[in-house]
Task: structure prediction
Amino acid sequence: MMRFLTAGESHGPQLVAVVEGMPAGFQIDPAKINHDLARRQKGYGRGGRMAIERDEVRIVSGVRFGQSMGSPITMVIENLDYKNWGKRMSIDPRDRGEARPVTRPRPGHADLAGVLKYNLGDIRDVLERASARETTARVAVGGLARQILEPFGIDVLGYVVSIGSVRAKTPEGIAPQELRRITEQSQVRVADAAAECAIIEEIDACKQTGDTLGGVVEVTANGLPVGLGSYVQWDRKLDARLAFALLSLQAAKGVEFGMGFEAAAVRGSQLHDEIGYDAATRHFTRLSNNSGGTEGGMSTGEPLRVRVAFKPLSTLMQPLHSVDIKTKAEAVGAIERSDVCAIPAAAVIAEAVVAYELANSFLEKFGGDSLVEIRRNYQGYLEQVRAF
Ligand code: EPS
Result:
């Protein structure tokens, strides 16, 4: 199995990810990772920072001549904005006088709990790492994970299903490639032109009043084999791992699979996906996919469908009540440059997180040290399932 860590501050020199456990023999194309990084930067409602950055990955270990070698892969992404922050983010104690300490915590952000926990006098020491800028590194890790899934025909796609109170319809039964084409063209990553207009209006209205918007994104994965994850132990359940990873995203507040929370309100007979058998292809089939592609902590072989709810961003240009941490006087939350809405980007980020968790579960099941070994294990398992 793989593991990874990210490091880096939002206005520091670089963001870094180190991925351990990547097997050898996989084609690694940095252009594919950069494509995802560029997708993460887009979306109506983003602030000024994205006009400064041009996120691109530099792989500095673990890849040679376009292939993984089995050694740790280190990816570095430069923060172009660092040139404007060099002194304020300096590691040299002689530059301390350059800091303009942030002392008014924003309700909703990591600011207050962060300074209390780490005993810090400048909220910047918290917000720099709590920032969603960190997700740049996670999208790079997801871009790598997709290149593990790709040779096995597993495809992961994230898109937006609602922003604020506007719900976008996603056409039922639409082919994944078509859904990708439509949502990638949309400024807010939806498959519903009318909803797109309403969302853009809502973002504009929030910008006018100094407010922010949250939303819900959906991630689907096609081509999964049955049996990733396991029912035998709590921390091996695929849906639990996905939920953990998705809830670790900045501003994430909830995760649901398939019919999700609505399933609690219907009868069992209306929910569970009835089983059939196709003798021609020797496959068990499902008449519906309300489960969202997992049962008992394992993939069913049906498409995975998971949604994540994100709260509105906590930097408000019309700030809420707060207290100055130094003087303890009444104040309003600090104003930092931020986005009105980052949900279109959140869809790309959630997609990356799902790709990583699926790749890891895939390696856990079919693991080996090379693509050749993994392919052999995978094909053997598919034959076993077919012959069942
Ligand atoms: C982000 C970069 C940040 C913000 C946003 C996400 O850039 P800056 O702070 O320089 O404007 O746009 O971060 C937040 C919303 C947050 O609360 O930290 C990015 O690269 O996604």
About this structure: The pocket of EPS is lined by residues 10, 47, 49, 81, 131-133, 136, 313, 315, 336-339 (CB under 6 Å). Residues 168 and 195 are 5 Å apart (CA to CA).
